Amino acid sequence: MQIIKDKQIIDDSWNYISDDAELKAGNISVSLARWNKDKQQLLHHDGKVGVRLEPSDSVDNIAEDLKKIELIELNFPAFADGRAFSHAWLLRNRYQYTGEIRATGHYMPDQVFYLSRVGINAFSLEKTEDLPAALSTLNDFTVIYQKSTN
Fold first, then answer.
1. Gyration radius of the chain's alpha carbons
2. Roughly how many angstroms between the first and final C-alpha of the chain, as a whole number?
3. Which of 148, 115, 96, 144 is nearest to 7 (CA)?
4. pLDDT per residue over 24-59, tens digit each?
């Protein structure tokens, strides 16, 4: 599968591991609940570890662990739920998180530009055929009036 990361289409090297699945080697992301439950095991994992945040999760719950986490996935379970925009902004501005922040789930390619403005630098789209169009939206505006994280 491919994603957009840092304004390029690349192959995705990460796998999301559900709460009831066995951990496997390689770069994995897990839910916040699993991170909290299995943190010590995950810190010794053979590969990089990321955490997926749902809209109802609090960024504050992982603030002390951010230096140990290489990927934060912000899940959009529904198009109309924009709490992940706030999560990204908090991660970049309040907590100075410098790792990858990836949007995943149900959002539109048209939102990619606005998601990048709050600090998201990687995008996993439901349809890989939408990647070129989403990538092009990152250059939609040349003049910006509001401050941004990038």
1. 15
2. 26
3. 115
4. 899 999 999 999 999 999 999 999 999 999 999 999
